[in-house]
Amino acid sequence: MGCDTFAPDVNGAARFAERLAAGLVERGHTVHVIAPSQTVFRTGHWDETHAGARLHMHRLFSLRWYPHPWLRYMMPWTIRRNTSRILDQIKPDAVHFQSHFVVGRGLSVTARSRGIRVVATNHTMPENMIEHTTLPKFMQPALLKWAWWDATKILKRADAVTTPTRRAADYLEEATGITGVHAIGNGVRVSDYTPDFEHRGSRIVFVGRITGEKRLEVLVHAVALLPKSLDWSLEIVGDGEQRHHLERLAAQLGVGERVTLAGLVSDAELKQAYTRADVLAMPSTAELQSIVTMEAMSSGLPVVAADAMALPHLVHDGENGFLFRPDDAQDLAAKLEKILTLPDEEFTRMKKASLRLIQAHDIERTLTTFECLYRGKPVVDPVTEEVTEGR
């Protein structure tokens, strides 16, 4: 498995790769992971424990990409040499790369030259990466065009291409011209999360990177519009370059005492944050699936999410939460207030709806589907989205 980002990084692609690798180990497979080193001083091959499973890690020399708060990158001019060495050593039955930026570029060439089956998963859109390049605005359209051309070239080397939802698959097919992209949900182990039906308050939670694409300014403006009588609180779990900006914004809007930026937390603390919350707010407009939303649903939370990209496939308006107009703080505030003031019976119904809808995304289905892809067997894509009547 090739990853340009992997644990301890905290993002959707890294979490998916970690869970997929660990789940495959639990099923008896041997999994090797190529990923960036965490420091410039420690590179090489050793075992690491992730999600309770022992993985064979190949950490390649990497440097920090300083326009980004945590992203590291491996050296493109060494990736073919490194992937050739690793593949010749372990002789895998299949290769699965999680991004096309560096490691996918090398693995796709070296694996095909050795007759190894290649599976690719796309977790990102080049549009979301542009803000981290520091290039002037007038140069960004040309860079975006080149980025999609480059992604197409690398993804076409794969025997099978996947992405988390049907909407994301359609988007990828349109952008690249690749046909037959599989929509395979990231998957979440629902049993790992603990719903709380005993206590109810007005606690809002957001989990994720604190970056521009997550639209957290919209969320902070929205909670500032909530009635003070609700006695609401907002907990933002995660870190990123906009953290200090959000702290200043909350203070300027007079809600600094009600907004907590918890930073990075352990898995156990994250699960507790979901359990003690009453609703998840997801203002991002660029989610290809949103593992965070799936984790919140596994915790029995109603969700208020932007009506954009893949989120409408998880959040069924009026059933397990509400959708709001993207970047509309007033509409987000209205939907949050609506959930927080629901009668207990309706609120419980929404919590149970989240638990019911998330069952289609249990990771066991995801694992079975990828096992078939690795073996070259035909697959029927799991149901990664349900559409409610009228949508």
TrEMBL record:
Gene3D superfamilies in the record: Glycogen Phosphorylase B
What InterPro entries does the record tag this protein with?
Glyco_trans_1, Glyco_trans_4-like_N, Glycosyltransferase_grp1
The answer to whether the entry has keyword Transferase is yes
Any one GO molecular function term: glycosyltransferase activity
Domain Glycosyltransferase subfamily 4-like N-terminal, by residue range, is 10-190
Query: Which UniProt keywords are listed?
Result: Glycosyltransferase, Transferase
Pfam families recorded? Glyco_transf_4, Glycos_transf_1
Show where the Glycosyl transferase family domain sits: 203-353
GO biological process per UniProt = carbohydrate derivative biosynthetic process
> This protein is called what?
D-inositol 3-phosphate glycosyltransferase
Q: Which organism is it from?
A: Gryllotalpicola protaetiae
Highest classification ranks of the organism: Bacteria, Bacillati, Actinomycetota, Actinomycetes, Micrococcales
